[in-house]
Amino acid sequence: MEAIQDQFQAVVDGFIDFQGQKLAEQITTYTLTVSAIVGFLAGFVSQNIVYTLYICLAGTVLTFLAVVPPWPFYNQAPVRFLSSGSGGRNSGSGGGAVVGTIVVDGQEVKVKT
Amino acid sequence: MHSSLVRLQQVFGFLTTVSFILASIIALTSYTYPMNPTASIKINDVAVVKRRSGGYYSTRQNEYANVKFDLNADFESLYNWNTKQIFVWISATYGGDRYPTNEAVIWDKIIPAAAPSKKLTLKNIKAKYNIHDITGEYAHRNATLKLSWNVQPHVGVLMWGGVGESITKSFVFPSEKARNAV
């Protein structure tokens, strides 16, 4: 029962990772802006404002569909936490003991307690 | 943008920004089109009659003026991609002793953008509205007719204008029930 609840909660929440959030924001900005510009030009050139309306509406629907659901490509770089058992040794010396390394922006960084 | 609800709000928020900017630009394009419609009005007949006014039981009497006229007009230049419809009207302007500035609409028409022709050729039509003066009588005053227009855009503010060359030569409201050709 709890598993079903969790699954339902996950669908409602639709969490995505940090890279996905950045991508979602960029997609929002570009699709809405581009559809507005294309719609304006199409309407202005053809002197028919209905084209502007429909192109912008289509762009809006597309943006909502592309951005709101938690599509798999928004979860390609999930945050990996260090396991809770990897640290814990405290030697007491200044600077702390090296308990492992993690990669930040392509560089290895030593993790101290 | 971590959850669906936040993304929904974010997209909608940016949509309102984009829509507002787009609407502003569309509204501004209306001003780039020259609007210079042409029109000429010819007055055929002016009549003043006395009628009961102020309701069914009223015994008050007012003078009403009715005008017959020809209208030739070309409103093509008022139509651009942002024009939904135009409203045109003819008003009579006349002076007076107690109330020196008077203007009353005698005829109007709505021409939507979908109308097949934006030119009007009306022959000897009767004014849609009988006008009456605030004092109740016209007393041989001078008057002129003039055509004015509104453009109702799809996006933006109502635009106003008048056709300068449509102003008629001044005519005189005749005595009650008498008719005079102008």
From TrEMBL, chain A:
GO BP term (any one): signal peptide processing
Compartment annotation: Endoplasmic reticulum membrane
Source organism, top-level taxon: Eukaryota
Keyword Endoplasmic reticulum: yes
Transmembrane segments: 27-45, 51-74
Keyword presence, Transmembrane helix: yes
A Pfam family annotated for this UniProt entry: SPC12
UniProt-listed InterPro entries: Spc1/SPCS1
Membrane topology field: Multi-pass membrane protein
GO CC annotations, alphabetized: signal peptidase complex
Keywords of this entry: Endoplasmic reticulum, Membrane, Transmembrane, Transmembrane helix
Function per UniProt: Component of the signal peptidase complex (SPC) which catalyzes the cleavage of N-terminal signal sequences from nascent proteins as they are translocated into the lumen of the endoplasmic reticulum. Dispensable for SPC enzymatic activity.
Sequence similarity: Belongs to the SPCS1 family.
PANTHER family, sorted: MICROSOMAL SIGNAL PEPTIDASE 12 KDA SUBUNIT (PTHR13202), SIGNAL PEPTIDASE COMPLEX SUBUNIT 1 (PTHR13202:SF0)
Protein name: Signal peptidase complex subunit 1
Phylogenetic classification of the source organism: Eukaryota, Fungi, Dikarya, Ascomycota, Pezizomycotina
TrEMBL record, chain B:
Membrane topology: Single-pass type II membrane protein
Main location: endoplasmic reticulum
TM segment ranges: 12-33
Location in the cell: Endoplasmic reticulum membrane
Keyword Endoplasmic reticulum among UniProt keywords: yes
One GO biological process term: signal peptide processing
Alphabetical UniProt keywords: Endoplasmic reticulum, Membrane, Signal-anchor, Transmembrane, Transmembrane helix
One GO cellular component, as annotated: signal peptidase complex
One Pfam match: SPC22
Entry function: Essential component of the signal peptidase complex (SPC) which catalyzes the cleavage of N-terminal signal sequences from nascent proteins as they are translocated into the lumen of the endoplasmic reticulum. Essential for the SPC catalytic activity, possibly by stabilizing and positioning the active center of the complex close to the lumenal surface. Essential for viability.
Similarity field: Belongs to the SPCS3 family.
Name of the featured protein: Signal peptidase subunit 3
Lineage of producing organism: Eukaryota, Fungi, Dikarya, Ascomycota, Pezizomycotina
